[in-house]
Amino acid sequence: CIDGVLGGEDYNQNNINQWTASIVEQSLTHLVKLGKAYKYIVTCAVVQRSAYGFHTASSCFWDTTSDGTCTVRWENRTMNC
């Protein structure tokens, strides 16, 4: 999903809302099509690539025997997602 939205693009602040919405919507669409009885939470952050980096953290309370997480990192020469 990310490459389909951001592939070939350069960072442009004016497009961030559209890009993140598309990435989240497409990701959820693909996950739902798997037909699994899961609840999904999808978040997306796109930042301009710089020497300063980008750090984020989150926390969840869940059942480690049945719940899980997946993190996808994507980057090109002008941005990180």
TrEMBL record:
Keyword set, alphabetical order: Cell cycle, Cell division, Centromere, Chromosome, Cytoplasm, Cytoskeleton, Dynein, Kinetochore, Microtubule, Mitosis, Motor protein, Nitration, Nucleus, Transport
Biological process per Gene Ontology, one example term: cell division
Entry-linked InterPro entries: Tctex-1-like, Tctex-1-like_sf
Localization of this protein: Chromosome, Centromere, Kinetochore; Cytoplasm, Cytoskeleton; Nucleus
Subunit field text: Homodimer. The cytoplasmic dynein 1 complex consists of two catalytic heavy chains (HCs) and a number of non-catalytic subunits presented by intermediate chains (ICs), light intermediate chains (LICs) and light chains (LCs); the composition seems to vary in respect to the IC, LIC and LC composition. The heavy chain homodimer serves as a scaffold for the probable homodimeric assembly of the respective non-catalytic subunits. The ICs and LICs bind directly to the HC dimer and the LCs assemble on the IC dimer. DYNLT1 and DYNLT3 compete for association with dynein IC (DYNC1I1 or DYNC1I2).
PANTHER family for this protein: DYNEIN LIGHT CHAIN TCTEX-TYPE 3, T-COMPLEX-ASSOCIATED-TESTIS-EXPRESSED 1/ DYNEIN LIGHT CHAIN
Annotated family: Belongs to the dynein light chain Tctex-type family.
Name of one Pfam family that matches: Tctex-1
Molecular function terms, GO-annotated: dynein intermediate chain binding
Descriptive protein name: Dynein light chain Tctex-type 3
Residues in coiled coil: none
Annotated Gene Ontology cellular component terms: cytoplasm; cytoplasmic dynein complex; kinetochore; microtubule; nucleus
Species of provenance: Ailuropoda melanoleuca
Annotated function: Acts as one of several non-catalytic accessory components of the cytoplasmic dynein 1 complex that are thought to be involved in linking dynein to cargos and to adapter proteins that regulate dynein function. Cytoplasmic dynein 1 acts as a motor for the intracellular retrograde motility of vesicles and organelles along microtubules. Probably binds BUB3 as part of transport cargo. Required for the efficient progression through mitosis.
